[in-house]
Amino acid sequence: MFKNQFKIAIRNLLKNKIYTIINITGLAIGMASSILIFLFVLDELSYDRYHKNAERIYRIVEESQAYGKLISLPQMQAPMGPALVATFPEVENAVRLFPVRSTVLVRYGEKSFNEEGLLYADSTIFDIFTFPILSGDPGAALRDPNTVVITRKMAKKIFGHESPIGEQLTIGKDETYTVTNVVEDVPQNSHFTFNFLLPLVNVSKITGDPLNSWFRMSAYFTYLLLADGASARQIEEKLPDFIVRNLGEEYARRSHFFLQPLTSIHLHSHLDSELAPNSDIRYVYLFSAIAFLILLIACINFMNLATARTATREREVGMRKALGAHRGQLFRQFFGESLLMTCLGFLLAIALVELILPTFNTLVNKSLTLGSNTLSHFWLGLLTIVLFVSIVAGGYPAAYLSRFQPVNILKGGSTFGVKSSGTVKFRQILVNVQFTVSIALIIATLIIFKQLEFIQNKNLGFHKEQVVVIHLLESVEGKHNVIKNALLQHPNVLQVAMSSTVPGKKPMQAVVEVEGFSQNLFMNSIAVDYDFIKTLGIELVAGRDFSREIATDAEEAFIVNEAAVRKFGWKSPVGKKIKWINKQGKVIGVVRDFHYMSLHEKIEPLVLHIWPGFFPYLLVRVSTVNLSGTLEFLKSKLQEILPHVPITYSFLDEDFARLYTAEQRLAKIFSYFSILAIFISCLGLFGLAAYAAERRTKEIG
Predict the structure, then answer these.
(1) pLDDT bucket at 339, cuts 50 / 70 / 90
(2) Could you give the CA distance from residue 448 to residue 440 in angstroms, rounded to a whole number?
(3) pTM beyond cutoff 0.85
(4) Neighbours of 161 (CB within 10 A)
């Protein structure tokens, strides 16, 4: 029976080649699109689940009302983790992480490298997280202050094929560390990463704060491993009393602490300070909806063509029923044909996915492969896609065809043919649904591109073009003038400035006291030199710029933006007093608001001040004439002055454009899938038109 039905199905597919090709192509493109998005969604949902104890790992988060704003931070006081382990039996272990967010200078012998991913951590990191140790004594990892653990990638880059164990690296300002272990590279589906692990005890050298002090900076990302059977709620209920005992009633009154599951951080956490930018669950929902809609369009194609061709199979149905076939047998026959076509489309879809996957990976910035996720989830998902297409695309036509009345058909009547008004109307509705979905995707794409156009053309309040950004990894204290004078020798170097950060990067925050404002505030600040405002073309709206001619400017002068003036309610800001950490002085000028962070962030109050000891960034405005020669000059001059520092550069406008990579990626994804949706819809429309023309051949002549 099955063999006979299979032969009939093959015969029908080969008999109607053009419609078979249209159906299989439409289904293949629809399923390929869905599989690509399914791989993306699976990867997003897999973040941090590779850790052996992922379901028992939590991060502690603090929400507090302080200095005029609600702050949500995943960073704790240094003693928090060890104290929780000592106090609560529900907490089995804890680890503290302290990231270095900028690139650092790493030296091995005569080799120098600019590297990112420096992370200070407790040795318990290997007890809580699953980072396999490839070489070295596991018991020695992060136990000694002068040791370092590196990843496989760094070991290969720095040491080549030699064993790094026991070798010494100089990291940062002449600090020497012995390599004790090599660990596997951190998987891509991790909410944080690292290339170098240093013992946490060394953080005190950076902050100057002891690790046993509760009343110092909250800077440590603290993760807890809960005991088997313990719940986060149990600990959260006890936290208020714990905070009162260690930080006092006032602190406990204005702060709320809770535990955040490790596996929810990547898609659900957008706190004020994260180890790395996270994704958003809304992208998962959005891309899943796109996959469903494209698959639906492909299924509608199949249904339209199948129901349109009923007239050619009416006599077959009539004869079969007259010979004793019941509706169930006919349903299985027609559904089997649909299932066969779906399976052929699926095989073609897999081939398309393999072909397109490298391009798709570039688009979404991932390294997806077929079967790279949890295999059970992967194959279950693919099976679901095949069943969905088979049931939706094949179920209705099979039910539709199998209910024909043999008496009417054998008498020559066309019960459900192409001329049936009800059938035609239903097909028209399905075609309208197809193009409505396609047009909706196009409109969404246009909206996203309009947003990108707005971002690209928005006046940022400064001139970002032709500005070279150089991150200096070595202290340049005492060399500022030497560097600037050397670079300004070139006729194509127009201006040079130094600063603690550059537009587009998050500035330093500190508690600021201001005259005429009752509350102390957290305020963004940028340490700049005398030429920062001129180099970036920032407009002064009141007062004056910093001046080398006025000696007190370096110690006592501040410049604020318009947002700060509005926040403080100043009518005459020039001359107002400000205290920034240990520096006291007066406002000498006001700059027009400029976007010193991305357009995702509103412009917050900002203070600029001179701080010569902290100028890691060099901003060089250059002419467009002989740009490559100018860049070579900059590198060679800086190499002369800073011989041990690898010199790398970027352009400020390109750095700013990279802030909107997510939007650019979203726009491309929408545009590609919109084109596919339109193509599938047009493919179905072509099939219907071709069939209608075939049916009316005699009429046309």
Answers:
(1) confident
(2) 12
(3) no
(4) 6
